Queue: 2 jobs
Job 1
Amino acid sequence: MGIRAAPIVRFGVACLVGVLAAAPPYARAQTIVRGVVVDSSGKPISEAALAIIAIHQATRTDDQGHFALPSVPKGDVEISVRRIGYEPLLVRFVVSGGPADSIRVVLAELPEVLDAVRVSAAERHRRQRIEDFYFRRARGLGTYFTREEILNRRASVPSDVLRTAKGIRVVRTSAGNGVRFNSATNARCIPMIWVDGQRAPGMEIDEISLNDIEGIELYNGPATTPAEFWQANAAQCGTIVVWTRLPGVPDNSHP
């Protein structure tokens, strides 16, 4: 299973428009980065997700394709741009340090995703949920592992990927290995696992094939768990959210 994911650096797709007037030496050290996201025909793209992962800033474009990322430090930044139906993009940009900079980003269409005849509503919904995974990752609300990071670890089971995560310990279970959050009051307390937006009570992470995983989210308790994955006492032991891959996209398409 597979899905196209960012952040492969793809130049020639994004068009960087000139930086606005340079700021004097006494100007603020942080800049508002504004801009617009359009398709190859110049039509504005709404609801595109833009993120600077290094500073945990994320936003989405409005109905006219406009966006603003406030308080961006001066210097080199990488802006991830994602929208379902378009090729994910990573734009490298030099922030001037002046009051505001401006960029224009052009995304390339993925016809096989935009074509409603070929792609079911359920598949489009799953693609959007994975886009939301990358948006939460950019905001830094939990601990995240992308498909690229999973492949780079050369692990054989999911618990191998998670064992180095802060606050996680790997335990032996009847099914093999499982993971627990150190903050859990009960050492036998099993985190709630969600798979593609559905709860899987009692499941251990190694019951999921590593080859089927697109991304993993970790939340160590109710205070950090997003509302959509929080249910009564289910988050008391921590929450693990797993997204599986959609068919048809090879691993080398992942950034």
Job 2
Amino acid sequence: MRTTITIAIVLGVVVGVAGRLALRGNAGSSEKDAAAAAARFDASADQVAANGTVEPARPEMALRPQTAGAITRLLVRENEQVAAGAVLAELSNETQKAQVLQARAKRDSALANLAKLRNGALPEEKNVAAAEEQSCKVAYDAACGELDRALAGGNSVSRQEMATQRTSKLRAKAGWDKAKAQLELVRRGPREEDVAAARSQADAAEADLKFAEAELAKTSLKAPIGGCVLQIFAEAGEAASPTSPQPVLILADLSHRRVRAFVEELDVARVTAGQQAVVTADGLSGKSFAGKVATVLPRMGKRAPQSDTPGEYKDMYYREVLIDLDDANELPLNLRVQVRIPGKQ
């Protein structure tokens, strides 16, 4: 920028701020601080002037749902403050809710089966198995006695009766062996591989439940950060999806303001992080806002707001500089402003 233009701008701002303070002797501390910061900029000093725009504390967020569906409810209004994680809108989700219920039932059944295997048989079941084994033993002893009596009878016992007694003994022996094996199985508990298989089924059911819950969560549009709802573009009943050309709403963190200034390529070496800055706007005559250079981006570009003033260069390269403002919540977002930074010597 030319030195004459810069000096004129600085003198005009300083005079305007001084006149405003003279008319308002009881002005707030924030305006006094900003005026003091402006006064520190000596008109004869080498300064960097740049255009910029007002931004929120973090870039605006255009929010869309993670799945496609019809919007059933909008739970916020424009200019409303919301907390991080708050539900902003809901999509139709009856199918997803049913899938969650189904998956939860399967998970509970699998967990119950696993617990049953791990716990083993109940004491009552063990008592029943022991009683069955004892009953089968008694039946076998009785069959053995009947066969012994038949053998002792000699020729008085027919071959058919003898065969029947032998068959009864074999059946009783088989029943007793089965009862003994069942009792041993009940006392020993389940096999490790059975427990491992049941555990795998329970894990798979748990994974299916988490997947169903995740699909249900996608039907709720939540605030990723705490902030202010700047603008709502959708209404209840409209369709929305992750690829919709227009978002459901725009959210921004308005805890403080910052300015994205665009420093011309001839001045880039004279601006570093930590330098003081003063911001003014054409629509706020007599006001200035103090700030500090927070970040100097490491690349150049052609994107910059145009002030449409005579003689403004259109083919200049710029370096973006982020300036944190001390107290400037009254500044609307995207307002075009002018920035002055004392040049680095």
